[in-house]
């Protein structure tokens, strides 16, 4: 009778607890609060305070008191929780709960979408649909009963929910997971302004690249600053953008490099973002910590790859293998680094994986204290609801869990989740243990015997076959999961997921999936008591993970090579200076510089390298490269993308850096592609393998920008034909218009008192006019080259270089008179119409006229043998060998205005040096050592060691994956990661690719 009255009291309290003051009631008013006293519990007030044998008093939605020895006031319903625990309900700071999923753009790059240049959204909004700060979750949110129940069963009591759409995404809101009306569960209507690099459902072509997304967001900040000081126009988007700047700022990124990119924007505009990361911070934890950002870390660890088939296992890269092994240790690494962070279930295939993954993170070093902090107090503080929830204190909302044991202990059961003082049953409190024998029936398999003993399970076929199969068994509340491999009939992994549907007798039901993909139903009914003594749970043994490598790809090293003093002795030295080629000479490298070049040099304290029979040259410089770029090399949605910067998307993890070091390359000029007449700003890098993106940058050099002529810029072979220009006449007009606007912009900036809108695109063009930025122009045909020279003369700007100029031999005299350099291919011709008249003597002719001439790659593979490309000028035209070598060393250095530092072997210059096995122009020459700043980033002998070590490392991890599968872990089929190799014409849509990846691999 007492139990019945208690149950009725709980039900009644739920009905009267949430009377809404502004809503009329159809019937009798009843506003009595629910009064509950939870006694004799172990109460975890917060991560630092636990009360034994405590009492929690709840009145209505709020906690009245929490402590020990508390006298229960009259009128309270007493609930005895002896032997049980009370914890604060969990908080997820990054969800889309209650928000409709936006329609995503399809892939296909430029050719796969209609050209839409301005917003299609009606009203006074921003010109670009990816900028949507006017989006307010508080006006969009509706309760999702099914999702709320799933989250409650996982232990969550409140969440921060946002619109997962766009670059500037608008404001998020904090809501509880109660089942009351929306206006009763809204805890905070504006918790943060939200951002990403993904334009989401925007129909606008721009941006198509990561660097375009960055430029658009930067321009929006500047537009908002201008907007706040003007009265010329009304813009809802900019109005709301400005209003949101005092809110917390949450920025979702993909990968640790994007953490650094987002932080760079933050520093430019005086912000500090909270970063929703992708869980790979451990790879560069020091760089991430240096940002000062707080993190929201996902728990969507990658599933093991099914590596049993050696042929398929070859498709798994070393980076994939190591990430599978090391990512579960990411939360621990972040904790160890002292970075403030919360955890999110966002991105999990199923919320049922949450507890498995959080315990995996704990097994891999995350402390239980930090886990609790990151699921309660930290997210509460991040989203501004710490005054309402996150801990169990007087006056806060009655959001708490009742559990069977310590929260993170394997086998713990969440019985109830109280939210705003309302009870939600998660698990049947009188079913604390599922130990017993069961009759198991699975569609497509039939009858089996199931024995559960605590946290372990065994499957056995009925009848003569007495083989016992150990199964992986998990329980989260009333959720249960089983996976096992019967070896035959059927073969492969069988996965079961389901619920406790009945307590007396115990009945389990759910869905099954066979290795073949066949789905079905299953059920298990309790048949008898299991008399086996429960096995004492042992601490889970975790096989130590391998070590970090830098970069986190093949050929990365556990430690970076060190700069040292080195004497390269007794070699043939190609100085590229007036001394020419020195026989039996030495080169001394010290403190990252060339200390001396000559014969019989004293080593002093330097390490001596015997280079007898070797050749030593300056490092090769590639004037035109597209390696080490991520997220697209073209921002071609508009005729000018001068606002975008390759500097923003340098990719330090590109294996082509290492491959080109092996070919003697030490410096690369990373160019925007050729999809538009005026492309983006370029970036000069040194190939410092293993350093982060900022550390790759050359530093102290002049800025350059990519222009382009020809078929690509007028979209002869792609696009809708709607983007201007589509003719060569239009290309010329693009330049005239752009420089006319830039001159007007510059004049406006110079006038006192003007509120001129900062324009990142025109800033770059003004730099050209002021000789602070220099043009490298993609070019082929004589007529177009003449056109641009004429346009430059007319508008008062200079052209620095015509790159891969294959008809340079026709206009060499004009180039010479204008001081324009020529960078070309050695012997490419006839691969498209506009190169039909290219000749392999082009380099020779330009050189003879007196033009600074170079050979470039525009191709990741070609850059690995630019020394051989230089040698072709000897074949085609009999260019002297010393001059030929300069085509890929000193001459590109001159083009790039860095010849005072690199390009020749001269004391005082940077120690960018290559030791060759043979004559450097020979097809038999191999780069044995490549020094950058005196550091041997490429060493042929060390490379052999690295290959051997990493082969063993891959074999070790493959074996670990196979063992993981045998123990019931979920697996995925190996899929080869095809690296994107860029050239001038490469087109893609960065956001569409992200959207596709989210749709297919949301769990990764």
What's the short version?
This protein has 1004 residues and is of the alpha/beta class. It has 26 helices and 45 strands. Strand 21 and strand 22 form a beta hairpin.
Describe this structure in words.
Strands 1, 2, 3, 4, 5, 17, 18 and 19 form an eight-stranded mixed beta sheet that branches. Strands 20-21-22-23-24-25-26-27 form an eight-stranded antiparallel barrel. Strands 28, 29, 30, 31, 32, 42, 43 and 44 form an eight-stranded mixed beta sheet that branches. Helices cover 26% and strands 25% of the residues. The radius of gyration is 33 Å and the shape is globular. The chain contains 26 helices and 45 strands. It is an alpha/beta fold and 1004 residues long.
- What's the gyration radius in Å? 33 Å
Give start-end ranges of low-pLDDT stretches. 1-9, 11-18, 107-113, 999-1004
User: What is the residue-mean pLDDT, rounded to a whole number?
Assistant: 91
Major beta-sheet overview: 8 strands, mixed
Helix content: 25-40%
Q: Please state the structural category.
A: alpha/beta
Q: Give the end-to-end Cα distance, rounded to a whole number of Å.
A: 51 Å
Number of strands: 45
Shape: globular
Strand percentage? 25-35%
- Secondary structure tally, helices: 26
